[in-house]
Amino acid sequence: MLKDITLGQFFPGDTVAHRLDPRTKILLVVLYIVALFCAKSLLAYGILAAVLAVCVRISRVGIKSLVRGLKPVVFIIVFTGILNLFFTPGEHILAELGFLRISAEGLQNAVFMVLRIMLLIMGTFLMTYTTSPISLTDGLERLLGGLKKIHVPVHELAMIMSIALRFIPTLIEETDKIMSAQKARGADFESGNIIQKAKALIPILVPLFISAFRRADELAVAMECRCYHGGEGRTKLHVLQYEGRDYLALALGLAVTAGIIVLRQFT
């Protein structure tokens, strides 16, 4: 299960998706999320799924990597779908199970909600797969640069987000090693009720927290030794600059989002 968590991983490549400016990819993800929340028909979700499939094809990441990333959140997706299925009021009742009712409107909302969550997660993961944490930091800092005028610590916030994404795979690997070591000593994490399973996680959480704090301390010491004092006066080795492909990608993203919004008016 832990190996299926792919958030924060970066797959190096030389495709058009990898060469796009990180600011462009962040804005495209925002547009994609807006389009997802504006979609209200199977046609709209089909268009957005097709757009994601084209992006996956261009990036050469592989649909299997995106689907594998969904495994850790399957419970949340199913639970959300069940809530929408049984607790959405509607006039056209399809079935009744005691006080629970399944309506046509509830079924539609459940399907749309499941599709929305899946496409949203896969679209966000695709950005992290094709963008290095350093590039994401630079892109976020440049996009939010205007907030510096009101004394918002943009550089520090972007750095925190980048470090968090960077260390997710590291912590997952560390957790897997701790679990393997505990199992070798006879620990059982699968049997018992929920309370017993929760108690069994304590031998994992304690060394994991210690390891995380140790890594954080080492990182802080390393940054201090290199005279890191925030973004004040810092220069960039690679200066971000928009190119023709970035403007084309943004234009296509705006066109798709506008089309979904217009389609919403006719459904």
From TrEMBL:
GO molecular function terms noted in the UniProt entry: transmembrane transporter activity
Membrane topology: Multi-pass membrane protein
Any single Gene Ontology cellular-component annotation: plasma membrane
Predominant subcellular localization, coarse grouping: membrane
Keywords per UniProt: Cell membrane, Membrane, Transmembrane, Transmembrane helix, Transport
Assembly notes: Forms a stable energy-coupling factor (ECF) transporter complex composed of 2 membrane-embedded substrate-binding proteins (S component), 2 ATP-binding proteins (A component) and 2 transmembrane proteins (T component).
Protein role: Transmembrane (T) component of an energy-coupling factor (ECF) ABC-transporter complex. Unlike classic ABC transporters this ECF transporter provides the energy necessary to transport a number of different substrates.
Family: Belongs to the energy-coupling factor EcfT family.
Name of the molecule in the record: Energy-coupling factor transporter transmembrane protein EcfT
